[in-house]
Amino acid sequence: MSNLSQFNNFIGSLPLQETLMPVLFIGHGSPMNGIEDNEFSTKWAGLAKDIPQPKAVLVVSAHWFTRGTHITAMDFPKTIHDFGGFPQALFDVEYPAPGYPALAKETAGLISSTVVGLDHDWGLDHGAWTVVRHMYPEANIPVLQLSMDYTKDAAYHYNLAKELYDLRKRGVLILGSGNMVHNLRMMSWEMINGGGFDWALEMNDKFKNLILNHEHQQLVDYRNLGREAMLAIPTPEHYLPLMYTLGLQNPHEGLSLFNDKAVGGSLTMTSVRIG
Q1: Which of 44, 158, 176, 270 could be disulfide-bonded to 247 (CB atoms 3.0-4.6 Å)?
Q2: For residues 262 and 195, is the Cβ–Cβ distance under 8 A?
Q3: So what's the pLDDT on residue 13?
Q4: Which residues form the Extradiol ring-cleavage dioxygenase class III enzyme subunit B domain (predicted)?
């Protein structure tokens, strides 16, 4: 029996597990992190060894921003090279993880706040594969992506995430992939190997304190956090994956931060593990 057939035979439902699967927010940064062995990718690889092996991975990536909500539902999602100006070695990467059509359909059924489209055209963009290929290099775990509706605000995404909570009970690793501070127009190449502008560091510290203190409402209402927040989040797509991670936290869970570093002046790699 093929691996894909084994995966699809789980449905009805993935069996309930005794413990919740952790949930992650990953600051993914440059696509080059997908092929470099650096401090960020090394942490991603180590993280996979430190958490239970998932039955599947569901990624909410900054790079799939759509009208409406969609989930990949093909047998084998393609590797999308959605960037330009990088070395050929990056374009040559293929990450041949299987999809999980039955789980995609079941996940769509969990969401009652909107109709979720089953997508057969997208695949795995660099917000997904550059991270997951370090975590699961054998590409033997199904990977799906859930898109974010660009017509909706942060509160909508935070609340939609709560509808996915059952997946944590069934061994699905849900991973938000973006960056808390992400302003490429202000990026400094002189600081590309490390360092942040004062406003970026100040805002990143504010984000971290709110996360650690479980003050989610202020993070949802980020537009009220001042000028630094508007510099950190000039457009919302890299911030909104954090809403999915936080929306999946229950009040009794601890969390930790990792890869807490600014690069390029105006981007932070700060990442969150819950559970």
Answers
A1: 158
A2: yes
A3: 58
A4: 38-248
